[in-house]
Hints:
Chain B: Pfam families: Response_reg. The complex is a heterotrimer of chains A (140), B (122) and C (797). By secondary structure, chain A is mostly beta strands. Helix content of chain A is 13%, strand content 44%. Chain A has 2 helices and 10 strands; from the N terminus they run βββββαβββββα. Chain A starts with a strand and ends with a helix. Chain B starts with a strand and ends with a helix. Chain B has a 5-stranded parallel β-sheet, sandwiched between helices. By secondary structure, chain B is of the alpha/beta class.
Amino acid sequence: MRHVIFRVEKERYGLPLSAVREVVVPPERFTRVPRAPSAITGVMNLRGRVVTVVELRQLLSLPEGPTPPGRVVLLDRGRRDLGLLVTDVDGIEAVERVSTAPGKLTPAIRGVARLGGLGVTVLDPEGLDAAVVALFTHSK
Amino acid sequence: MAKRVLVVDDAIFMRNMIKDIFASGGFEVVGEAANGLEAVEKYKELKPDLTTMDIVMPFKSGIEATREIIKADSSAVVIMCSALGQESLVMEAIEAGASDFIVKPFRAEDVLAVVKKVLGET
Amino acid sequence: MTMDMSRYLGLFISEATDHLEALGRDLVELEREGSSSAVDSMFRHAHSVKGMASSMGFEPIAILAHRVEDLVDAVRQDRGRLDRDLVDLLLTAADTMLAQVRSVAEGKPPEDASALLTQLSQRVTVMTGHAPAATRVAKVTALKSEGGGSDSEEPGGEGSASGGSGAGNSGTAQGGSSGTPGSSGTGGSGSSDPDGNPGGGPGPSGGGGAGGSAPPSGSGPSGASHASGAGGTAHPGLNITGPSGAGLTLTPAHVATPPPEGTHATVVPLHGRRATDADPAQRLSPSDLANSLKAAASAPMPEPLAQRWAVRLRIAPTCQVPGVRAFLVHKRLTNLGTLVDLRPALEELKAGRIPDGNIQLELETPAGEAGIHAALKNVAEVEVVSVKPAVAAPVVPTMVPVPDGGRAPADTASRTVRVRTELLDYFLDTVGELMLATARLREVGKVLPENTRPALEEGVYRLHTLVKDLHDKVMTARMTPLSLITDRLPRAARDIARRKEREVDLVITGAEIELDRAILEELADPLLHLLRNCIDHGLESPEDRAAAKKGVRGRVLVAVKRARDRVIIELEDDGRGMDPAKLKNAAVSRGLLSPEAAARLTDREAFMLSCLPGVSTAKDITDISGRGVGMDAVKRVVENVGGTLEIDSERGRGTRFTLRLPLTVAVVHLLLVEVGEEVFGLPIAKVVGATEADGESLSRSRETALLPHGNSLLPVHSLDTLVGVPAPRKFGTQPFVVMDGDSGRVALAVDRLLGQEEVVLKPLSRPLDLLPGLSGVTILGSGRPVFILDVPRLLTA
């Protein structure tokens, strides 16, 4: 299946092409969201739609540090306008044979695959969605 | 010359049955496809006189495949294979450019009657 | 021609087995992970098995597969419907079909599974609101062992399949037309009881009689729904009165006529619009084209312009799906020209409601009579009764009422038309964009040199007024009274109460209050579910009520009220009330909540636990409230439309569900304020005033600063801390906004007042809607998104 491959720092991630609506350059500044969990970078105006942007690093509980705002990967999730802040987008590649990731598995991660000799963490769109909702519901 | 037919259905069972029906009616089945993606490719390759198209299929639905085939060849003759209860889907397929439809479970004479009518052979 | 199906048996067995095994895997995966691809693939598996089994004449398998398909389709519409019960049921069905396929593999006919079928059918009825449709099965015999008459099948097989859905009608007609009475007597696969009720089901061995269609005599829950089930699958074949075609009425002449230029007809159904005069030839097949060219050349009237033709058609009574057939005809004709009249109307045609299969229409086309014949020549099951030149009706100037001069038809004054809801949605979106664009223009005007500014500002002002007016009109067009959905409740209440042996009085007030139809449509299912919840779980049995010294008849009140820019719907019962402790226990025992967290919940919060999936205080899962949409779905829908759900309950006294809903997707007046680097909107409606003061010099009560305002002292809240946005520490005088809160007025300390703005409120999409204290978001003329704050909730949440 074809995946959009992108990076957070040096780590590579993939999302099924069908789950990605588009990739955009982030605005100079995001509008901050009152009382939002820290993983929420803010919202942006995308042609009249208000898109919530999440820092993937924090969503996946990766080591601390701000993500240089390179690209926003917009998910195609029906009514939800959700974007992931990532370092850069590498391209679209066919990813086959996803195996279960070692170690702690979050629903946002489907597994790992190999691509050109390198590892890619394959994300699960519905899991990501659930992880974002969980951020909001469990933070209190 | 026998008319050339492409049969699209995700079930081998159905494909075989439809192939036999066409064979009994003097048609030549020149190809088969098991999903919408394959259907569009096979169509472009084979340019059949007639295509039978299942609606519910993996990867790409029959409606989407029909739309693409008609876009590539506006004179394509696509016959939808439907079941009772799929009326709105068949209408969508007609909007997409399907020429006619047949209803499962198929009876050979019904299928051939529709097909011959569509091809102007009656 | 009879097909020998036995040669497909091997393929059927292997492919059906594959599909059924995959179905089982998908089910388990779906229950575990809830991925939507699993639902789609389940639907395909069930659908494939249905198709194969019905082709093979294995009725028991085909019907089971059909019911599974129905249920999976219902789950596809609303995932909330998939509960463990349903998964169990579907797994059982998959296993049963596998066993049936195995038995076929051993040369034995598949066994009936009537008990399972009944369960599945009931589930379909509960989930979809109507009885399942009949399953069409080919009358063939694939098994050699089934006995002698295997090659006697002929058209009778089909006749009886259609008869299966109609209660006692077409039997004789079908028998007569098939001309093979011998074959129908076996009834082997002719009719399938749409409900699969063992009580009334004719079953494969039922003595269906000549037509093979015994009307199902089932009683009980499915009894009432027969009518709809049969109606849904009825064909014109049910009413065969002979192909006389008598009784046709001629097309009346007072049909509205398109403007003389003939560019666009005014009465063309929206679907037909795509066909313009310019391209009829493009979509014709080469032979059609040749024919219509010929026809044009030899047309009786040598006019090159489009001419109007009255066409009468008949759909063959044997057609199984006349609606689709008619739609195909419609499509062919609109490719040819412009349809100016169509009876029955397109929606009726599509639904298959075509009395005696007769269709009449008027068509404007340059293709001529021969062209019309040519366009329909290749369509099966359609008979062209006549094509005649139509007498053009006198030309009516336009559809728009003429301001002065009495030539406009009398009925244009208050004419109503049906407009597709997508169109209304489109209007609204576009008006929203127009308002944004206007605001942007105004921004641009601010940087223009003084002397050029007034002209632009005047223009922008006019534009603003017009757009605002247009917005109001669009909103008005979208407003729909709640009665549209509450009218269904009394009947539903009666049915639920009867099944539960409860007595209930349902009182509905305020149903005339209007709400945006987008919101209204979403509410239909949640309201029904809440009503079920009240009657089924809320109300006690008459004996219990008597023991509790209550009236024997329970009472459910549905009260709709309008409160400023909200509509409030309350559903209230006077039943047993909810027990917060039980809800907490249920949530804890299901691992949804830690015991510590549960202990901290207030009663009101505990009531909301009933909205978590899988939590219910009902001891028995009844087939009324235990199924269908759950409370979690109710809450989700209400919140998705921008509303809130509250539950209040008192043990022994009753339960009240309160839905607070936005009236519409609204335009709001905001006071824009700045805090740190952020801008927020405060609804002007809640703003009492603004003032300046030195924050340091204010008197304090404990930690709270107090701002003198009028004769009172108001508690001061710093907006930066309320919203959690860092702001530099302030010195000296700063602005304060005085607002109405839930418990009195409050003063908000802000950094700067930016002024007023009128904006289109956008509802919050997931996940923003989960945050307390936000009532919406908007985009300013500068393109910057700005949140609109719900101050009372910010203060309490």
